[in-house]
Amino acid sequence: MQLMPELPEVETTVRLLRPMVLGRGMGELRVAWARILGGQSIAEFQKHIRGTRVLSIDRRAKYILLRLGRQGLPAGVIVVHLRMTGRLYVDPPGADPESHVQVEIELDNGHHLRFLDVRKFGRFQFAHDESEILPALGPEPLSDDFQPHWLMRSLQRHRRQIKPLLLDQSFLAGLGNIYVDEALHRAGIHPQANSARLDAERVRALHGAIRRILTVAIRREGSSFDRFYRTPEGKPGGYQAQFQVYGREGQPCRRCGGTVRRTVVGQRGTHWCRGCQHR
DNA sequence: ATCCTATCCTGGCTGC
DNA sequence: TGCAGCCAGGATAGGA
Fold first, then answer.
1. List A24, A62, A230, A248, catalytic entry
2. Is the pTM for the entire model greater than 0.85?
3. A16-to-A78, A223, A238, A274 alpha-carbon distances in Å
4. Is the minimum distance from the CB of A262 to strand C below 7 Å?
5. How would you classify residue A210: left for phi > 0, otherwise alpha for psi between -120 and 50, otherwise beta?
6. DSSP per residue over A1-50, as a string?
7. For residue A131, what are the contacts with CB-CB under 8 A and spacing of at least 6?
8. CA of A267 to C1' of C7 (A)
9. Which of A107, A123, A117 shows the shortest CA–CA distance to A20?
10. What Å value separates CA A270 and C1' B16?
């Protein structure tokens, strides 16, 4: 079983990295797997970042944005996507790099910003402006833009299976397979329910479930099952202990006692409870 | 508009 | 025990 970093894992990464990178100067770049850079050459990337400082680090959807400046003026941004097995962290001087470190940048305090990615699906890209890289993204589920009436209208505008729709980052930004399964279970919605047919009560429940689950998961510093997701401090997250359905195929539902099932919906492994979730 | 498939990758798992 | 083959899984592109 894998863990793909979703909004809570990316948010945790950003929060823990912030004090380690803010204001730091960017030095020598080393790249093991050039395709991680998304087509840009190592030399170009190095030229762009050399002598810049980190002005800010933020999250948008599942992207990490490291904004850079030179003499206080904006000088581009590094856009990182962890995809499934990526980790971004800072090592102190002398720390032995782990295997699968694909990109590292020496910082002006001798530490290294390291991007580790076993499967190499992640991206670590430079752009003059993040708009060159970020695709169209829906609202942030923890922002004020995400309201029940917005969700109701938007669900009705589409007529899609609810799970693939919630995974669509241009619809709503930041959810992935795990938190969608958990949110649908909490809201009592079948993963294949038609988005346009959910009544107002279900939609309110879904809105509340998404907010609640993401908020608690961030508080727990995300979820980890295996060696993949770790916070930048190297610790596993703690939210996996709260999973109601994800990864619990064949085990009893914690709410109704029925058996948690696993099926495939929209080409994704999907965990749900027939007793709790209806179309 | 929506859905489906292939692609990118590697480690872990299954089955023999 | 060893090994070949299968599979997951986010995002995207291209075809139906």
1. A62
2. yes
3. 17, 15, 15, 38
4. no
5. alpha
6. ------HHHHHHHHHHHHHHHTTPBEEEEEES-GGGGTT--HHHHHHHHT
7. none
8. 12
9. A107
10. 30
- As a whole number of angstroms, the distance between CA A105 and CA A124 comes to 11
Reading chain A (279 residues) residue by residue, the pLDDT tens digits are: 456 799 999 999 999 999 999 999 999 999 999 999 999 999 999 999 999 999 999 999 999 999 999 998 999 999 999 998 999 999 999 998 889 999 999 999 999 999 999 999 999 999 999 999 999 999 999 999 999 999 999 999 999 999 999 999 999 999 999 999 999 999 999 999 999 999 999 999 999 999 999 999 999 988 876 666 777 877 878 888 889 999 899 999 999 999 999 999 998 999 999 999 988
Dihedral of the alpha carbons of A8, A13, A19, A21, in degrees to the nearest 10: -140
Whether A17 contacts A112, CB under 8 Å? no
What does the alpha-carbon distance between residue A12 and residue A221 come to, in Å, rounded to a whole number?
5
Q: For residue A245, with 0-12 CB atoms within 10 Å meaning exposed, 13-18 middle and 19 or more buried, which class applies?
A: buried
Structure tokens belonging to residue A129? 């402006």
Cβ atoms of residues A225 and A3 within 8 Å: yes
Has A62 been annotated as catalytic? yes
Cα(A269)–Cα(A185) distance, integer angstroms = 14
Of all protein residues, which has its CA closest to the C1' atom of B9? A119
